[in-house]
Amino acid sequence: MPRFLDLPRRYNAATHFIDRHVAEGRGAKVAFIDDRGSHTYADLAARVNRAGNLLKAQGVQREQRVLMAMLDSIDFPALFFGALKIGAVPVPVNTLLPTADYDFLLRDSRAVVLAVSDALLEKFRPIVNDQPYLKQVLVSGRVAPTIKPLESLLAEQSDQLEAADTTPDDIGFWLYSSGSTGKPKGAMHLHGDLVHTAVLYADEVLGIRESDVVFSAAKLFFAYGMGNAMTFPLHVGATAVLMAERPTPQSVMARLKQHQPTIFYGVPTLYAAILADQSITRESGSAKLRQCVSAGEALPEDIAKRWDQRFGVSILDGIGSTEMLHIFVSNRPDDIRHGTTGKAVPGYDLRIVDEQGRDVADGEIGELLVAGPSCCVAYWNNRAKSLATFHGPWTRTGDKYTRDKDGYYAYAGRSDDMLKVSGIWVSPFEVESALMAHGKVLEAAVVANEDTDKLIKPKAYVVTRDGIDGDAALAAELQQFVKERLAPHKYPRWIEFVAELPKTATGKIQRFKLRQ
């Protein structure tokens, strides 16, 4: 069963991740490097205390929510841990949403304070005055002369603050699911969840060290990026590089070159885009890079191998979720099996079950269930979804997987994306991986489509590499390419060439949009 750390009954996450570093002699060490400059652990601790005092001054009470629509900068950890420290509940949200979604999130969370980056403020202007719960808006960055910026407000507060008397089981923060299949769901996480992922994954699998400099293209507002660039480095006293702008191959490689990180976290789409640019070489990035990590979607085997060949650094592929907070199945630095997600992270248990909830045999496709100490307690105000997802210690991931005889887990696709062709389950990810191994393909997405007899067959949407025209000849070439690598019934009967694929902010392909 899941392995829980032995945490004291009085426990506040801010004490572990922020306060202890100064006492342990790391006050002068750089904790974060953002677009403004470097910030030491002592600076960070003072800023967190000022943020907590500022929220108190705004009238925030214990367990009340603080919505954070913030780009990656030092203000993110300051507000996040400042809220945790006073017993309030920070709620980081996606920074790429439309105004209507922010209106829903403010109402659903009942946040009493909104902390927002200046670049995002215009999206909130039409809705802030009509919110039934919102009382204050704090703006990070440049603001109009009539508004006092967050920096000035923080400067007015004391840098001393005692942590609230919370427990590991207090609600600490919420993270909203991506909402790709409906309204976002607020996953309620505990104070103790953060340190569990830091110990079980970052320590025991990744092997993060105090001497590391880390850079995550995945942003702080969602679970993967929060661990990568905030809680994991703060757990060991390492240094994290933050970037406010959206990650492109050029912006990412510029940060790798400038700051020479030792660990880089990306997503499959980004790794593929970097590899597609032939001008990017090993010398374009960090000479100190010792490990790369991928999550968000399964990493195609071809991308993993080509990255290793070009950059001389392996990618650890893993799977995590908002509900579980971070990666719970992963390859290891000394045990990488390309084309698989690896094995269970220590402290997490896995099952693969059929539609009746029975464990399947090795090699058979089923739904992956996970049990672990970092699982959220429920979805806020959504009992039906909670009951459908959380079954005692087990959480339904919605992912289809197989396990081989050696215990390695291989991704087959999302449960609602799977295809049944000729009575046999077909993994869209398997077909996509085969297509992406072709030298002319940049990205591919496979969905179900009916033929003239109303039978389900695979259809592929393909983005070609720059300079390659998608035509009937290439479509036939790709179909033959797949036939030579997979069972005959799996090849795409139709191939449609598109300029780009619809994706979430985390880089996941939104196949449901392609099915519409």
Taking strands numbered 1, 2, ... along the chain, how are they ordered across the largest sheet? 2-1-10-9-11-12-13-14-15
- CATH architecture term of the largest domain: 3-Layer(aba) Sandwich
Proportion of residues in extended strands: 15-25%
What's the CATH class label of the largest domain? Alpha Beta
Q: Tally of extended strands?
A: 25
Number of helices: 15
The name CATH uses for the topology of the largest domain is Rossmann fold
Largest sheet: 9 strands, mixed
Helix content: 25-40%
Q: What's the name of the CATH homologous superfamily of the largest domain? A: ANL, N-terminal domain
Report low-confidence residues grouped into runs of 5 or more: none
What structural class do helix, strand and pairing data support? alpha/beta
pLDDT averaged residue by residue: 94
Number of domains: 3
Distance between the termini: 41 Å
User: What Rg is obtained from the alpha carbons, in whole angstroms?
Assistant: 23 Å
The 3D shape can be described as: globular
Describe this structure in words.
The protein is α/β, with parallel strands linked by helices. The protein has helices at 13-23, 41-57, 75-85, 99-109, 121-124, 150-155, 193-206, 223-236, 249-259, 268-276, 301-311, 383-389, 428-436, 472-483, 511-515, and strands spanning 30-33, 38-40, 65-69, 89-92, 113-117, 136-140, 171-176, 186-190, 213-216, 239-241, 263-266, 291-294, 315-320, 327-330, 343-344, 349-353, 366-371, 390-391, 394-403, 409-414, 419-421, 424-426, 441-450, 456-464, 494-497. The strands form six sheets. It has a nine-stranded mixed β-sheet with strand order 2-1-10-9-11-12-13-14-15, sandwiched between helices. Strands 16, 17, 18, 19 and 20 form a five-stranded antiparallel β-sheet that branches. A hairpin with a 4-residue loop joins strand 1 (30-33) and strand 2. It is globular. The model has no long low-confidence stretch (mean pLDDT 94).
